[in-house]
Amino acid sequence: MEARWDLNFCPCGRNILQIRQIVLLLVLCFLGNPSVLAVDLHPQDRVSLIMFKQQLFGPDPNLATWVGSNCSNWTGIDCENHTGRVISMDLSSMNLSGIIGPSLCNLLFLKTLNLSHNNFTSSVIPPCLGNLVRLRSLDLSHNGLGGFVPDTLMKLKHLRELNLSGNGYLGGDLPIWVGNFSRNLQRLDLGSNSFRGEIPKGLFYLESLRHLDLSENDFSGTLDEFHQPLEYLNLASNRISGTLPCFYSCEQSLSIINLANNSFVGRLPSCMSLLRALRQLNLSSNGLKYEIPPMLVFSDKLLALDLSFNEFSGPFPGKIAETTDKSGLLVLDLSHNQFSGNIPLKITELKTLQALFLSHNSLTGEIPGNIGNLTYLQVIDLSHNSLSGSIPLSIVGCFQLLALMMSNNNLSGEIQPELDALDSLKILDISSNNISGQIPQTLAGCKSLEVVDFSSNSLSGPLNDAMNKWLNLKFLSLARNKFNGPLPTWLFTFPAIRTIDLSGNRFSGFIPDGNFNFGKNFKDAVIDGTGNDDHLASIDGFKIQISVMVMGRNEVSFAYDLLSPVGIDMSDNQLNGEIPQSLFSLHGLEYLNLSYNLLEGQIPASLEKMWNLRALDLSHNSLSGPLLANISSLQELTTLNLSYNSLSGFVPRKQGYWRFPGAFVGNPALCIEISAGKCQPPTIPALPGSTFKDDVEEGPISVWVFCVTAAVTFYVTLIALFCSPRSRNYILRGRL
User: Fold this and answer.
1) Domain enclosing residue 648, as ranges
2) What are the residue boundaries of the Leucine-rich repeat-containing N-terminal plant-type domain, all occurrences included (predicted)?
C-alpha cells in the first residue's frame, strides 16, 4: 500500500487548526530541547577563552559556566550562528581581576569587547588588541590599566565606540591619530585618566563623532570650533583656557555641554542662544566674567544650567531661559558669582524649577513675594547675599521643599508659624541673620527635619517641646542667640543626632544628668588610629553633601550626606553645678566644649574611657581637683583646653599633657613637671597652638555636592579639597 500525504491548504477551519497545532508542536520541541538551536563554540576560540580565564586571579564564579562546547552556556559570550566564532564578549562588572592576556587577541572575529568595571591591571594596554580589526566597540573602562594608548589601535578602522575611561594611570600625550584612525568613530570616552597636552586637532573635524568625553585629565590649550554635529561634550576638570566657542556646527544637535573646572575666560557668548537642542550646560568653576548678555536666552529644552563659581557680575539675568509652555528648566545654579541687585520676579515664572542656587553673590532687596509660585521647588539656597526683609509667607506654597537655606543675609522678622506646612523639609538653615522671637510651637509639624541651623540670630525665650518631635534630627545649632532658661531633658534624647551646638546663649541651671539617651553615634566608640582630625578643630567644620538628581524631564530626586563630628557644644552660657558622669560615658563623642560657664567640681573619671574624643574644652569654669592620670591613653585627642579653672596637684610628664601647650594656663595650683622631680606652674607657650574657637567665615552648613542626573552616560566631577570653604561635586547625566 502506498503511503500518501495529502495536504490540502483550502481555507477551511479544520486544516488551519491542524497547521497551528503542528507549528505549536515544533515551537515546543525547540524550547524543550535547546540543543536543537545550540551553536558549538569554535575550537580555536574555545582554547583562547580558556587561556584568558587561566590568567585571571583566583576562581571566578561568574565564569563557572565556561565549560562544554555550547556557546549559549558561556556567560558573556555570543557566537556567530553558522561558524561558532566569538563575535561578542561582555564581561563587564563581574569583579574580575588579573591581566588581559594576549590569548584574547586570537578572537579575530570579535566585534564587541567589553571588560569594563573590573579590576584588570597592567602597565600597558595589550598592543595585540589592534589585531581585532573587526571590532566595532571596545570598552576597557574603569579598571587599573596604565601606560600609553598603543599605536596598534589605529588599525581598528571599523571602531564606532572606544571607552578607556576610569584608568587613572593611563595617560601621556593623546596620539594624533585618535582623531582620524576610524571614520566610523561615534563615541570616544577617555575621561578620568592622566592624559595631557592639547586635544588632537583631528577630533574637531571627525565627521562621525557624536559623543566626546575627555573629562578629568590634564588637557591644556584652547578649545576650537567643532566641525561636526556633536551631541555630547564633556571636557570638565582639565586646564583648557581661552574663550568659549559658539559650536556653530552643533546648533541643532548638541544636547550636553560640560566645560566645568577649567580656565576659560571672557564673556558668555550670546551665540549660545543658537543651541536649540541644549538640555544641560555646566560652565562652573572657570574664570568667566562680565554681565550675562541680555539677548542670551537659552533653549526651552534646557533642564539644567550651572554657571556657578565664576566672576559674572552685573544685574541678575532676568530672562536667562525662555518661559514657554514647553520650557522645563529644573536646576538653576548661579551661585558664587558677583551678581547684584534684586532677584527679578521673572524667576518665579520658571514654574518647573526644582532646585535654585543663588548663594554667594551680592543680591539685595527682598525675596520675591510670589516665590511660592514655584510649587515644584525642592531645594532653594539664597545664602551669603545681602537680602533683607522677612521670609515671605508664600514660601509655604513650595510644599515639596526639602532644603531651605537662607543663611548670612540681613533677613529680619520672626519664624512664621505657618512654616509647619513644609512637612517634607529636611534642611532648614536661617543662620546669621537678624531673625527674632521664639521658635513657634507649630514647628512640631516639621517632623522630617534632619538639619536645623538657627545660629547667629536674635531668637530668645526658653526652648519649647516642639523640637522633640524632630525625631530624625541629625544636626542642631542654636548657637549665638538669646535663648534662656534651663536645658530641657528631652534635648538630649534625639536618636539620630550627631551634633548639638547650644553655645553663646543664656542657658542656666544644671546640665541634665542621666538623660543622654542618644543613638549609637554617641554611644559607639570606633578607634581608627588615623589621627585625621582636620574637620574636628571646631564644631563648625561639618559639611553637607546635597544631591539633586534630574531623573527625567519632569522628575528630580533629592538626597544628602552629613559629614560632621559627633559633638556637643554648650560653651558660653550660664550653666552651673558639676559635669554629669553620664555625659562622659558617651564613648562615641568626638567633640565636647563646655567652656565659659560656671561649672564646678572635678573632671569626671569616665573621661579616661572616651577613646574617640578628639577635642575637649573645659576652660573658663571653676573646676577643681587633680588632673586625670590616664589622659595619655586618649590617642585620638588632639585639642585640649583646661585653662582658667582651679585645678591643682602635680602633673607628671609621663601623663602626656606636654602634648597640649597652653592647655593649663590660669590654674596656679597646678605644677607641671619640667624635669625629673621638678615642676612649675603652667605658662603661656611662646608659640601657642591654634585656638580652640577660631572664627569661621563659612557657616556650619555648607552644600558641597550637587548632582544633576538625567539618563545619560555622562559624568562630571569637581571635587575641591575638604578644607575649602565650600566644595561641590557636580555630576551631569543625560540621554542623547
Assistant:
1) 509-525+539-680
2) 42-79
